[in-house]
Amino acid sequence: MYEQERAHASASDLMGRFSPLAMIVIDPYEDRLISANQAACELLCIDEPLPLAAPFSHRLSASLPLWVSFTDEALVQKTAWSDDLVILDMLRQPYRVEVYALRIEGSGLLLLTLIDRNKAEQRRAKAELGRQHRQGEVGWQRVEQVFERIEKQNQLILSAAGEGIYGLDAEGKTTFVNPAAERILGWSTDDMVGHDAHLMFHHTHGDGSHFPVQQCPIHASFSDGQVHHVDNEVFWHKNGEAIPVEYTSTPIFEMGRLVGAVVLFRDIRERKRAEQQLRDALAEVESLKQRLELENEYLQEEIKAELNHRNIVGNSPAVAKLIKQIEMVAPTTANVLISGESGTGKELIARAIHAGSTRSYRPLIRVNCAAIPRDLFESEFFGHVKGAFTGAVQDRNGRFELAHGGTLFLDEVGEIPLELQSKLLRVLQDQQFERVGDNRTREVDVRVIAATNRELRDMIDAGHFREDLYFRLNVFPIDSVPLRKRIEDVPLLARHFLHRACLKFNKPGVRIPPAQLETLQRYSWPGNIRELENVIERQVIVTQNRRLSFDDLLAESPLHNTPLNVEEERKVSQAEILLTEQALCQRQMDNTLRALTITRGKISGGGGAAELLGLKPTTLSSRLQKWGVDLREFR
Predict the structure, then answer these.
(1) In this structure, are 410 and 555 located in the same domain?
(2) Cα separations (Å) of 610 from 178, 294, 544, 604?
(3) Can you state the angle between helices 581-599 and 617-627, rounded to 10 degrees?
(4) Residue 265: phi, psi to the nearest 5?
(5) Closest by alpha carbon to 227, among 195, 261, 268?
(6) Same domain, yes or no: 173 and 201
(7) Are 596 and 629 in contact (CB under 8 A)?
(8) Would you state the pLDDT for residue 148?
């Protein structure tokens, strides 16, 4: 310990308190800065007691490997010198230093003399200028040669630059132009130097409107002394072509006075083209995304709509014939025209044809022609381009494009305006069309299934429907039979709709008594299957006893019932006079449940169900228990 302290004292003596050179003592083994003279403290911004607690290597930045090699050399050779080293001050600022090292005898410490290379080079340059001055004219000639060499190097740099560079004086006149600027703008140096650059190639905006010089960011550099960067303007080529550019205008000062500016600019035509291609690609991706989203919506509809003919419920001869027709036409590409009254299931037939076809992997696109405004038919069918009409803010795919490779179902085809029927005929014949506002012809592969509840023949005679379009659609006609002509299917349909309604409204256990099925079969069903489904759903909603009744409902709609013939009336009268034991029990149960409904589940007491039925409360309770009736359903 005593030897170490004596070494420290010796080192301090060697450094000298007032030496103009920065001198420090380090312990390379302990990685510590032991001591520093006044000049070293000023150089390294040291204002804390020595030795420093922080490791000396923290001040060596990325040059640490060079320092390790240097200190090893000094410890082995006793002295070392290097001008490749970097040291950081307390503020983490780097200094390039020239270092002399001396190993202190009797210890592992090193005495380092640090010289700031930047300051040293400045002193040498100043000394050189002094010598040149003393040498007189010969020296000044050499200085002139130095500046000529610097100017030549600058000219080489300007010539090699890929960006256009030109200079301006305070009046906006061009002072110099590099070859890249000549190449980009088409003007030669002789054309440009001494002339107003703004009037020559920066006089107009990209849209052709006048560009006042007072608004020019380049000229603004002359007044505000600020750097101006613009990334989306145009310079004008000598041949009149607009060249998209980005540029930076930097002011030039001389003795604190603004004397001009230098402008560096870049031709960005390739970048603009790449950006436009990217925008076009993104627009195409967005269009495909929209198409896929729409197709997904239609696919979801198909999933929810039960897509094959096995969901055409019924076992009547009419249904058997219909299923056979579907099986024959589905595998073909023939157009189909489905005729029939509203509510007979024309769309279900269309979906069954599509599901049995080779196009079933593609969507079935449905168009309700009766719901489209007259002036939007063409856009809805064929799509439109952006700006084709007021409100067309972007390109839109039409239904034919969405149905490409699949099937297009035209519901209520008789509602298509006469003036559009010719365009529809062309698509059916040639499988080609144009979007609204576009002159590009597009090709599609679409099978068309049409449906109507109108007599198209009568419309043809009246001049409201094209005969050639009718024949193009009516390749394979299918009649959708009304429910009154397949009345034997009513029980099957009623049970089918009852099952769906129970699931939909979460009312399990609801059933239709046999007598009520007979009531349903005596109704003419002018609204066809859609009306039957609605009636079933409505009764499931209102029922309180898990048994559906249609007597009151159908009696309230006398206009919906057609008169029965004599034979039917005779059968009805016999059915009303002669009741089976089961029918009597059912009627008794229905009558009891009606009484419970009126009294809201009250059995005994004044105004109770037992009093209304003329029964003892115990007898009524016994019957209800036998039938499994839960009184909570009536309260």
Answers:
(1) no
(2) 112, 60, 19, 6
(3) 110
(4) -135, 160
(5) 261
(6) yes
(7) yes
(8) 55
Same domain, 441 and 451: yes
From 425, 396, 406, select the one nearest 365 (Cα to Cα): 406
The whole-angstrom separation of Cα 405 and Cα 281 is 23
Question: Residues near 603 by Cβ (< 8 Å), separated by ≥ 6?
Answer: 596, 609, 610, 617, 620, 621, 624, 631
Nearest to 498 by CA among 439, 564, 543: 543
What is the 3-state secondary structure of 224-252? HCCCEEEEEEEEECCCCCEEEEEEEEEEE
Domain boundary among 241, 267, 293: 267
Nearest to 245 by CA among 276, 217, 278, 269: 269
Neighbouring CB atoms inside 10 A of 217's CB total 17
Q: Assess whether 319 and 225 both reside in one domain.
A: no
User: Quick one: pLDDT at residue 150?
Assistant: 47
Taking the C-alpha atoms of residue 599 and residue 592, their distance in angstroms, rounded to an integer, is 11
Supply φ then ψ for residue 462, to 5 degrees: -85, 0
Residue 279 domain-assigned (yes or no): no
Structure tokens at 67: 């320092």
pLDDT digits (tens, 9 = 90+) for 546-599: 888 887 655 544 434 444 444 444 444 444 455 666 667 777 887 888 888 788
Q: Which residue has the tokens 């023949």?
A: 457
Alpha helices in 84-193 (DSSP H): 117-135, 137-160, 179-185, 189-192
Q: Is residue 356 part of a domain?
A: yes
pLDDT category of residue 158 using cuts at 50, 70 and 90: low
Count of domains forming the chain: 5
Domain endpoint, select from 218, 244, 267: 267
Cα 380 to Cα 366: distance, rounded to the nearest angstrom? 11
Alpha carbon dihedral 524, 528, 529, 531, in 10-degree steps, equals -80
Q: Which of 75, 107, 46 is nearest to 35 (CA)?
A: 46
Based on the fold, state whether residues 563 and 609 are members of the same structural domain. Answer: no
What CA–CA distances, in Å, run from 194 to 167, 392, 443? Answer: 10, 51, 60
Give the range among 21-25, 282-286, 484-488, 561-565 with minimum mean pLDDT. Answer: 561-565
Give the domain CATH number at 428: 3.40.50.300
Give the total residue count for the chain.
Answer: 635
Q: Let me know whether 461 and 328 are in one domain.
A: yes
CATH, residue 176: 3.30.450.20
Which of 180-189, 279-288, 574-583 has the least mean pLDDT? 574-583
Q: Are residues 429 and 520 in the same domain?
A: no
Residue 136 identity: G
CA distances for 368 relative to 365, 392, 436, 438, angstroms: 10, 22, 20, 25
Residue 140 lies in a domain: no
283 falls within a domain: no
CB 426 within 8 A of CB 446: no
**φ/ψ (deg, to 5) at 284:** -65, -40
Strand partners, 452: 339
List Cα–Cα distances, 80 to 34, 68, 98, 111, 601, in angstroms: 19, 12, 11, 11, 112
CB 350 within 8 A of CB 364: yes
Give residue 613's domain range. Answer: 579-635
Q: What is the mean pLDDT of the chain?
A: 80
Same domain, 37 and 16: yes
